[in-house]
Design brief:
alpha/beta; 4 strands; globular
């Protein structure tokens, strides 16, 4: 067992396998879309795919109601990113335990996505390095994710709501731009990537 939050690249072996499989199939993604809990999938899968296919955009999908990242921040500006992380860490320092924010029962179904502050260990990494594993942040409404999740369920696919959160912008981009988009998918119990 490896704590993904302590070892942000712990899933790199999965990312390497995805790159190998995509190359074997002759598929070149234009983008990857995922969500963030610990940051392990973003660092270990999405960024590895981006390195394997230069020019691939890495997109982070966030729940609109419980967004933790600023979509307007220039995530390439390391100093601005470090400053953002330091300010977010103050939110944890103000509390003995992580802050609690009342959310709808439906929003809680999107666990393990962080709902008030990004993962503390990930923020500490970012505060030191200024490096983030994504190019931009997109917001996904709860309704859009729930509708897509229902379509998956009706099709007999056992994926969780976090997968639906990533699939909404992936599907939208693939359809609108006729591009190949890889979405990080999780099993319904959130244990399989």
């Amino acid at each position: 067992f490896v704590d993904q939050a302590l070892h942000v690249k712990a899933l790199a072996h999965v990312g390497n396998r995805v790159v190998q499989d995509l190359k074997a199939l002759g598929i070149r993604p234009n983008a990857t879309v995922g969500v963030m809990a610990s940051g392990g999938c973003l660092h270990g899968i999405q960024k590895v795919v981006a390195r394997g296919f230069p020019g691939t955009e890495t997109i982070l999908a966030e729940h609109t109601e419980s967004s933790t990242l600023d979509p307007n921040l220039d995530w390439r500006d390391k100093e601005a990113v470090k400053d953002f992380a330091r300010k977010q860490l103050l939110g944890y320092r103000k509390h003995i335990s992580p802050p609690v924010v009342a959310l709808s029962a439906q929003s809680l179904r999107f666990f393990p996505i962080h709902v008030h502050l990004p993962n503390r260990l990930w923020l500490e990494y970012v505060a030191l390095t200024g490096e983030v594993p994504f190019d931009r942040v997109v917001k996904v409404t709860e309704d859009a994710a729930l509708q897509l999740h229902e379509r998956l369920r009706e099709a007999g696919l056992n994926y969780g709501l976090t997968t639906a959160m990533a699939l909404v912008p992936a599907k939208q981009r693939a359809e609108e731009k006729d591009e190949t988009v890889v979405a990080v998918a999780y099993s319904k119990d959130q244990t399989t990537t």
